[in-house]
Design a protein that fits this description.
This protein is extended. The chain folds into six domains: 88 residues; 77 residues, no CATH class; 79 residues, no CATH class; 67 residues; 171 residues, no CATH class; 142 residues, no CATH class. Helices cover 60% and strands 5% of the residues. It has 763 residues and is mostly helical. Helix 14 packs antiparallel against helix 15 and helix 21 packs antiparallel against helix 22.
């Protein structure tokens, strides 16, 4: 339809007027409004009860007194009042669903209560919050929950097999031979997954708990015998699952030569399934190996009972060992020269090694001990003692560091070339040769992805390599900070800390060097200060944040980050308040009752989007502790992204109590209606709210740890303009391409059911 000329003039005028208003709204901000941004607190007149209030009172009294006829009459009366209001053009009271829910709560039979609740949900006048509460009540049916978990278990079992086979089959579009190989590998993977899967899955364990819950609550129910049979079958499967887990632990312990741990695991497996053959065999083997180890220990701790005196040639060495400043090295060398084939030559070498260690000849000492450790323990008295020192990371940290560094280099090269398969095939609880055979095709994939890992290597975070050698390097520096290898250990450790971005540790090590480079130290100090400043700024607790930032300013005053830390500490102290509970502007717009006269009582023009009459900043309002509110406004001649102008208002106890009560009521209702609009737990926030409701907010808690930084944010702030939604279809189509072989595949994938929030309790 074509508009006439007068209509076109009207439309043009309306468009121009709208554009003018839009330009005005987006114009220069006028800054904070003059006067108080809060409206005077509206007085509340006493509420005079009407007929609906009296009827609701009578229903509540009858329900509490067990008067079913009174409840029925009161419900009929309220329904009649609603009909009369509708006929007169007024809104109904909305109390009928609530009193029906009250009546249902007095029903003793759980099944009848659920039927009545389902009927109540069929009504069109149920409040959304009440509807969400009733739906939660109906969802808490043990048998229904158990059935859902069993369906989840079946879907997971089928979907796992289907998805593993559908992906390689989908590549048959472009490469049939590779698709056939992929299907074969998928079949092997399915077999391995089934072998490793627990007999009773997590959803089935959840169902078992719900069945037990139902039988405990309704032992006389007609469904109880059938449910008990399911419990017995599932309980047996659970015991076998635990048996399999402990048997795997026992086999792994035996492979690692830990017979004591294997024995404990095998006995635990027998407690789940008595007289189990595999568990009995493992227990017998572990007990035999443990007995053998204990016998060897008893034999090694035994001492010979010979009474023969030491030879005269050894007297000088014995005296030197007993004297505070005896010449142990000289006497040991004299004994070795005079009696090279004597029975005490090993003791002399051991004493010589100790003397070399005390005189600073560390490498010579360990060389002597290593020569002793390589001897046959059956013919050498000191071989076992020397071996214990050489092999001990505590006593010989440099040797442990060298070995760990070589192993770490191998681990890095192995990861670059083979990725996750560098340490061998996965533990599939199968014979080792079979595990190698199963993983063989995966090594080809690992080799083909070598360039990708080579590119990623310098940017891996967090840094996974070098932790073991770093531990031994620190131990060596603690043991001998001036040893012959101290500088090498310190240099390597500094490079390791710098590689993983731990600049404070790198600076500490650099400062310990005998002659550090001043330029190098200055660079490390700048990086350390910047890192510590960022950590301090991110701390939520005000006292800890202030302590960290002041430390940066105090210890690094010659750096740019140190000067910035001093300025930040000053600004933070100026704006520090006992509480920092923020209510954003978007939250106030989405929940006008919180900003309205029943809550904060904010002037309406501060939320209308017009910057000319003063506008609240997106940061909104902050409950700053006590009765103080911090209101943030858009700065004059500034935008919403600029720093806000803060204004503090001291409000009355009544206004603060109204705001807190309306805030809690609104958020609780929102959480019931919208599952995505949840309020996270915060004990300090709840404590402050409780004190505000009681009129005790003027006495702030002196503890700095009692400050809450919780923020009430709007849904648009959290999710954007359009909240993401999940498809309701159980299957999704996946398109997949491969650059190395220019392959293309398309295959369906079954969606896995989401784990319930309590699923981690059943793993």
């Amino acid at each position: 339809m074509i508009a006439s000329r007068p209509e076109r003039r009207s439309l043009a005028a309306a468009a121009a007027l709208a554009a003018a208003f839009g330009l005005a709204a987006c114009g220069t901000a006028a800054g904070p409004p003059g006067g108080s941004p809060l409206e005077p607190l509206a007085s509340r007149a006493p509420t005079v009860p009407d007929d609906a209030d009296f009827a609701a009172h009578d229903v509540a009294a009858a329900a509490l007194g067990g008067d079913r006829d009174g409840v029925k009459a009161g419900i009929a009366r309220l329904a009649q009042i609603d009909r009369e209001r509708v006929q007169e053009g007024d809104r109904p009271t909305g109390l009928v669903p609530f009193v029906l829910n009250l009546r249902n709560a007095t029903i003793d039979d759980d099944s009848l209560d659920r039927e009545a609740t389902a009927e109540l949900l069929d009504r069109n006048d149920v409040d959304p919050a009440l509807r969400a509460s009733l739906e939660d009540f109906l969802a808490d049916d043990p048998l229904e929950i158990a059935d859902e978990r069993i369906q989840d278990a079946r879907q997971i079992s089928f979907a796992r097999v289907f998805n593993m086979l559908s992906e390689p089959a989908g590549h048959a579009i472009s490469n049939i031979p590779m698709a056939a190989v992929g299907v074969a590998r998928a079949l092997v993977g399915v077999a391995v997954e089934e072998h490793l899967a627990d007999e009773l899955s997590v959803p089935e364990r959840q169902a078992l708990v719900q069945w037990k819950r139902f039988v405990a609550a309704h032992p006389e129910s007609p469904e109880a015998p059938e449910v008990e049979a399911k419990i017995e079958s599932a309980q047996a499967a659970w015991q076998r699952t635990e048996r399999d887990r402990t048997l795997r632990a026992a086999r792994r312990a035996l492979q690692q030569d830990q017979p004591g741990l294997a024995l404990a695991a095998a006995e635990q497996a027998l407690s789940y399934v008595p007289e189990d053959g595999e568990a009995t065999r493992l227990r017998r083997e572990a007990a035999a190996r443990l007995a053998e180890a204990r016998a060897e220990r008893r034999r090694s701790l035994g001492a010979a009972s010979g009474d023969e005196a030491a030879p005269a040639e050894a007297r000088g060495l014995a005296v030197a060992l007993l004297l505070p400043h005896g010449d142990v090295a000289g006497e040991a060398r004299r004994l070795l020269t005079l009696w090279p084939e004597g029975p005490l030559q090993d003791e002399a070498r051991y004493a010589l090694a100790l003397a070399q260690e005390e005189s600073g000849q560390e490498d010579e000492s360990w060389a002597t001990l290593r020569q002793l450790a390589d001897a046959d323990p059956a013919s050498s008295n000191m071989a076992r003692h020397a071996s214990a020192l050489v092999d001990s990371p505590e006593q010989n940290p440099w040797e442990a560091f060298s070995v760990a560094r070589n192993l770490d280099r191998g681990a890095r090269l192995g990861w670059i070339f083979l990725g996750p398969l560098a340490s061998g095939p996965r533990d599939l609880d199968l014979p080792r040769p079979l595990e190698w055979l199963i993983e063989a095709p995966s090594y080809l994939d690992a080799l083909s992805s070598f360039p990708n890992r080579l590119v990623r290597y310098p940017w891996i975070t967090p840094w996974p390599f070098g932790r073991a050698p770093a531990t031994y390097a620190r131990r060596y520096l603690e043991h001998d900070p001036r040893g012959p290898h101290a500088e090498e250990a310190r240099s390597w450790l500094e490079g390791f800390e710098a590689t993983r971005g731990n600049w404070a540790a790198a600076l500490e090590l650099a400062e310990q060097a005998p002659s550090p480079d001043p330029a190098h130290l200055a660079g490390l100090r700048e990086k350390t200060a910047s890192q510590l400043l960022e950590i301090g700024k991110g701390e939520r607790r005000a006292d800890v944040r202030g302590s960290l930032v002041r430390r940066v300013a105090r210890e690094f005053p010659d750096t740019a980050a140190g000067r910035e830390a001093g300025e930040f500490a000053r600004r933070d102290a100026e704006h520090e308040t006992p509480q920092r509970i923020r209510i954003s502007r978007e939250f106030l717009r989405e929940n006008p009752r919180v900003a309205g006269p029943d809550g904060l009582g904010l002037r309406p023009e501060l939320l209308d989007g017009d910057l000319r009459n003063g506008e609240l900043h997106p940061d909104g309002v902050v409950l700053a502790g006590g009765r103080v509110l911090e209101l943030d406004f858009v700065a004059e001649h500034g935008g919403e992204s600029a720093k806000p102008v803060r204004r503090f208002e001291v409000v009355s106890n009544e206004r603060l109590a109204r705001l807190v009560s309306m805030l809690e009521e609104t958020t609780t209702r929102n959480a019931l209606v919208d599952p995505d609009d949840q309020v996270l737990p915060d004990a300090d926030r709840d404590r402050f709210f409780e004190r505000a409701r009681l009129g005790l907010a003027e006495e702030p808690t002196p503890r700095a740890a009692a400050q809450s930084t919780y923020a009430f944010r709007g849904m648009r702030e959290r999710y954007g303009l359009v909240r993401s939604r999940e498809s309701i279809l159980p299957v999704e189509l996946v398109l997949q391409g491969s650059l190395p072989d220019l392959g293309l595949g398309a295959f369906p994938r079954i969606r896995m059911p989401k784990p319930t929030p309590d699923a981690f309790l059943y793993r």
